[in-house]
Write a structure and sequence with these properties.
The strands form three sheets. The chain has an eight-stranded parallel beta barrel, surrounded by seven helices. A four-stranded antiparallel beta sheet has the order 2-3-1-4, covered by helices on one side. Strand 12, helix 7 and strand 13 form a beta-alpha-beta unit. It folds into two domains: 62 residues, Alpha-Beta Plaits; 253 residues, Alpha-Beta Barrel (TIM Barrel), CATH 3.20.20.70. The longest helix has 20 residues. By secondary structure, the protein is of the alpha/beta class. The chain starts with a strand and ends in a 10-residue tail after the last helix. The chain contains ten helices and 14 strands. The site of manganese (II) ion has 5 residues, from loops.
């Protein structure tokens, strides 16, 4: 249930509504809107009787929340969440391009790629220091040494960095270095990790589980918001299907559904969806056309030598071409009255 306050509701009336909610054993969560405050009721088992609250001073209306997820839902927050990272605003109406290698392999590798992706139009640099690998014998990432290299990218190129956290144990370390913390597909329902991310002051990008429904994905995001962190970006990265012509199947239809259901920004990762370099451009164009707020793309200057995901990594020149194409797509859409995300930031 959501209690919407009048535009001119005083703090005292808001506090009184919060107290009335808590008196009944529920949790109250005030949500600042553009013009007014709304107060979400959480932790209710079964339905809540609206008449307890509708007559309180300052209350405009009481709206039932019909979805299982609450804080991530548009019913609770009708306006889009915008995530500010430095001077970049994710979800505002400009496409946010994130790019970089799958894994941080060395300082030279990362610096070379960072220079090229920045020139092409990327505004956030990606690179994994802790890698979730199918085989324990595969390269696991450089760990803290990799995070230190990412910090140098931020220093040298002024690019904020996004990197994956794999477990509770390394969370504080990753959090100290990252501008955006990534939770990968394999950890989408790692509930203790989600809770820890919810206590972070850093934005979190939550990738969709490879076999997760949209409801499950949004409920996972709800764990993060429920702990207090409202800066969550969703990322569609393809789901497992029966096909073998691509690594995963990019679920384009997830984009409009998520945009309808949630106020959180949604990015698309065409690289892990495709698994093959040739599919990355068409999937990127489709994602932008369908309303993605941005893309996260794997780029490597020597993909044939990459320690992970070389086959899906674009050459820098291909990424440059991709940026031009998606920018043209975004411009076409906005010029034709369909502004899903606007031009490249
Ligand atoms: C990655 O971004 O490198 C990654 C491992 O992605 P995912 O969790 O989507 O597989
Ligand atoms: Mn990868």
């Amino acid at each position: 249930m959501l209690i919407v306050m009048n535009k001119n509701a005083t703090q005292a009336t808001i506090d009184a509504v919060v107290a009335a909610i808590e008196k009944r054993g529920y949790i109250a969560r005030p949500i600042e809107g553009g013009e007014r405050v709304s107060i979400g009721i959480l932790h209710n088992k079964g339905s809540v009787d609206a008449s307890h609250f509708s007559a309180l001073p300052g209350v405009k209306e009481v709206i039932p929340v019909t979805r299982p997820y609450k804080l991530v839902s548009r019913e609770v927050q009708p306006f889009n969440t915008i995530i500010q990272v430095g001077d970049i605003r994710i979800g505002q109406g400009t496409l946010t391009m994130m790019a970089g290698p799958c894994a941080v392999e060395s300082e030279t590798q990362v610096m070379t790629i960072a220079e090229q992706v920045k020139k092409a139009g990327a505004v956030i640099f990606r690179g994994g220091a802790f890698k979730p690998r199918t085989s324990p014998y595969s390269f696991q990432g450089l760990g803290e040494a990799g995070l230190k290299i990412l910090a140098k990218v931020r220093e040298n190129f002024g690019l904020p960095v996004i990197t994956e956290v794999m477990d509770d144990e390394s969370f504080s370390l990753v959090e100290a270095y990252a501008d955006i913390i990534q939770i990968g597909t394999r950890n989408m329902q790692n509930f203790s990790l989600l809770r820890r991310a919810g206590r972070s002051a850093k934005p979190v990008m939550l990738k969709r589980g490879m076999a997760a429904t949209i409801d499950e994905w949004l409920m996972a995001a709800e764990y993060i918001l429920e702990e207090g962190n409202t800066q969550v970006i969703l990322c569609e990265r393809g789901v497992r299907t029966f096909v073998n012509h691509s690594r995963n199947t990019l679920d384009i239809s997830a984009i409009p559904v998520v945009r309808r259901e949630s106020h959180l920004p949604i990015l698309v990762d065409p690289s892990h969806a495709a698994g093959i370099r040739d599919q990355v451009l068409p999937l990127s164009l489709a994602a932008v056309a369908a309303g993605a707020h941005g893309l996260i793309v794997e780029v490597h200057h020597k993909p044939e030598d990459a320690m992970s995901d070389g086959a899906q990594s674009l050459y820098p020149s291909q990424f440059q071409y991709l940026c031009r194409k998606v920018e043209a797509m975004a411009r076409f859409l906005s010029e034709n009255g369909e502004p899903p995300a606007g031009g490249v930031q």
